[in-house]
Amino acid sequence: MQSGLDHAGAVGTISRPVGDGPDRPTVRGFRPCSVAIMRLILAHLAQILVACLGGLALHWLGVPAAWLSGAAVATTLWGLTGWAVSMPRALADAAMLVSGAAMGAAVTPAAIAAMGRYPGSLVLLVVAVFAICAASTLWLTRVSGWRRADAVLASVPGALSTVLAVAADRKADVASIAIAQNLRLFVLIALLPSLVVFTGGGENIGALIGEGQPVASPAGMAAVLFGGLALGAVFKVLKVAAPVLLGATVVSTLSHATEAVTGVIPPVIATGGLVLIGIFIAERFRTIQRSTLRRALTAALGSFLVGMAVATLFAALAALLAGVSFADSLVAFAPGGLEAMTVLALVLGLDPLYVGIHHLVRFLGIGLVLPFVISWLQKGGTPKAR
What we know:
By secondary structure, this protein is mostly helical. It has 15 helices and two strands. It has one domain: Na+/H+ antiporter like fold, CATH 1.20.1530. It is globular and about 55 Å long. The N terminus and C terminus are likely disordered.
């Protein structure tokens, strides 16, 4: 009689079981893998559905940036159930690609001409970054009892990947620093849109991105998306921040500024990109251990409030200096991440060029200066445990 496997130990071998049941082939070895893949796909679909429902709920409530904020909040809560899964890199890149293309479509020749007003605002941004770091560091060291090097890393406004890389290299308290950085980003995404609307900013609240505007032709969209993907690959090799988002933004900006491509990304597709970015943002916050979160939460909240107060003050000065709205300068000076803040500007109908340039300059400056500052603070020594 034939054994259950034609070749013992062979993986993926087809056999025909002997017995009273139907004589159907089975694939030994591949079946568990197929089931696991199917479960993973269903888990991703469930998570995306939860994020969409979160966005839809806030959209119905009239909350600004509903699809981005709602997706981030809902996905974070979903993570508490234990059913959350990590977003595949390809899916995150697709979201960045679509959002970058949508941002670039908002840049017109008139908007580029307005860049002459920005130099003074960018100089003010440099001063603001140092002031935000100093104020937040003072809170963490004097009130919360943190070490100075850890406090500086936790106070840096944005550039999370750079901050955590430096923290790990210098043997700092990475978990507490990650809590402070991620909490700031999460609160900004959840609350900043409503604050912008409260101050009288935001033009397309409640509307989908690009709603009511002409849609780009299929050929134009393909050129922007594939061009953005190619340039993003180059930026990735060069280790540039948010390479796919930046690549798509650059290609879309040049295409629309020169009118080689006209029209916007279809609103439904652009909104889907926002939902995926919301999931991506929530994933950063979800991976933190709850015990560490409880320990550092108060310090992180205090640091955020102090830093945001300083950022708001400088945003008001920048609005007067550059002649932009307070809403534009508030999002440009907000101590959030490059991707999140530039996308938020797009969602709120703000000037994505003004906001994006400020966050890009801030990110590049932090990446160049931070390693030297932390090395100087620690003076080459390994910090003691707190």
